[in-house]
Write a structure and sequence with these properties.
Elements (H helix, E strand, L loop, with lengths): L25 E2 L5 E2 L11 H14 L18 H9 L8 H8 L2 H5 L10
Antiparallel strand pairs: 1-2
């Protein structure tokens, strides 16, 4: 394991260049108009960028995505989506580790998953 206190010369940076020909992130409070910065450039939120990365990973790379629609194509809750991926969460020894290793987006962006009790 690398010690974060040691000067590691293998650090790298990633430049994410995003270009859109359509309105990538409309503002629902203003009739879906583009969100504009003071210099008239279009603001794209982190949520939109994460969705773009998730869609690419799913559609192009064939990865399993946690923040996605359910198997039936409809929006689903986090606990239902976790059950679709892991199976019976209560019988799984370490459901969170299983979700981390089974999905593309949880290790990158994190996730909030509720595990409901029977009570």
């Amino acid at each position: 394991m690398l010690n974060p206190m040691v000067n590691n010369k293998s650090n790298s940076e990633i430049l994410f260049y995003y270009e859109s020909r359509q309105n990538p992130n409309g503002d629902p409070g203003f009739e879906n108009q583009p969100r504009l910065m003071p210099d008239d450039t279009i603001l794209v939120t982190d949520v939109r960028i994460k969705r773009t990365i998730r869609d690419y990973a799913k559609d192009v790379l064939g990865e399993t995505i946690f923040v996605d629609y359910g198997l039936d194509g409809n929006a689903t809750t986090a606990d239902k989506r976790a059950e679709e991926i892991v199976g019976d969460i209560k019988k799984e020894a370490d459901p969170l580790l299983r979700l981390i290793t089974s999905t593309f987006d949880i290790p990158l962006f994190g996730a909030l998953v509720t595990i409901r009790s029977d009570a």
